[in-house]
Amino acid sequence: MRSHWGNCVTHFDEQVNDFIDDYFGQPDRRCFLVAAAGFDERSQIIGKALARKLGDRLHALFVREERGDTSANLRAAADANEATLRTLIKDSQVEPITIFDAADNAPVGGNRLASVLSKVELPKDTTDIVLDMSALSMGIAFPAAKILLEMSERSQKLNFHFLIASNPELDASIVGEPGEKVQAVRGFSGNSGRETELPKARIWLPQLAHKRRGALERIKTSLTDLYKVCPVLPFPARDPRRADFLIEEFGDEIRGEWAVDSRDFMYVSEKNPLDSFRSIEMLKKRYDKTVLDIYEPQLILSPVGSKVMAAGAMMAAIKYDLTVQYVEVLRYDIDETANLVPQMDIVHVWLDGPIYDGYV
Q: I need a labelling partner for 97 at 20 to 30 A (CA). Which of 43, 267, 279, 310 fits?
């Protein structure tokens, strides 16, 4: 059913605008959009592009992630984005999702999102579902993608797309304070229902990202039976030296507790999510074959940086039932000293739909 993922339809930058004009400009297209209504300036980009062509044929559910102790400037930015999105898309609703339980501060955002999506009734004659991952956190975007994909696959008529407005420098400027609890993302516990007496041999794939050391260290501490640590680095990247800077930033971990061999780094494109997907898929197939009947292989993913690279990891995790471990963010702040690049890279992936009927 998902055999086409390694070579599915993708568009980049200006190609995305052309695709939206040509495809969603068709009068029989009816689209349901799921996106963020948060402080991130990328919240509006995809919604605006779709609304321009679809008009009243576009319906939307906007997720407002609530983390409690939010600074006044970030809340004001989120309010402004929400107001603009409501104006752009008349038939839309905003759902506040409380990320942490008030009683014990446990991360519950994924479960609450699943509850909201389970009650969604798609407008009549909907042809396409679009998930805008640009400004959604991993704990919300990953469960949303899995639920919406399953909705599309059950219907056998709906098309499911995800779009991302990507800016790695902006990602690096958004600083999150990690929570205490390490857990699997909802729906991404991995190897569900599988029983074996073989000893486990785990490979951890942490996606290295600026100022994410605290989160990755907590995840590493929670893991046992690790055979290898294979850090995921962005290359090619918009900044050709970004991978070098990250190796320097995580140098103590790489040379110390993680004991990373130079051959174990995984380099994936910062621009194309299929590169990340294919790399993880290849690693899994080779590792499964190598340890067959000796160990129970398990890949554990921690995609904490670039949304594009994370999207490819998400695809691999869905297809192969892999574990995605993360630490939910307690609160966000903006690093005002960061060197930002205004250019946005836009990515479209057509993940599922009748277009792939008969694909072998």
A: 310
Asked whether residue 360 is assigned to any structural domain, the reply reads: no
CA torsion 71-77-81-87 (nearest 10°) is: 110
**Together in a domain, 115 and 233:** no
What does pTM read for this prediction? 0.96
Q: Are residues 10 and 125 in the same domain?
A: yes
| Residues 285, 229 within the same domain | yes
Range of the domain at 263: 175-334
Whether residues 214 and 253 fall in one domain: yes
Q: How many domains in the chain?
A: 2
Beta strands in 133-272 (DSSP E): 159-166, 174-184, 200-207, 226-229, 232-234, 266-268
The per-residue pLDDT string of the chain (360 residues; one tens digit each, 9 = 90 and over) reads 799 999 999 999 999 999 999 999 999 999 999 999 999 999 999 999 999 999 999 999 999 999 977 889 999 999 999 999 999 999 999 999 999 998 888 999 999 999 999 999 999 999 999 999 999 999 999 999 999 999 999 999 999 999 999 999 999 899 899 999 999 999 999 975 567 889 989 999 999 999 999 999 999 999 988 999 999 999 999 999 999 999 999 999 999 999 999 999 999 999 999 999 999 999 999 999 999 999 999 999 999 989 999 999 999 999 999 999 999 999 999 988 888 888 999 999 999 999 999 886
- Residue 138: closest CA among 6, 317, 333, 258: 317
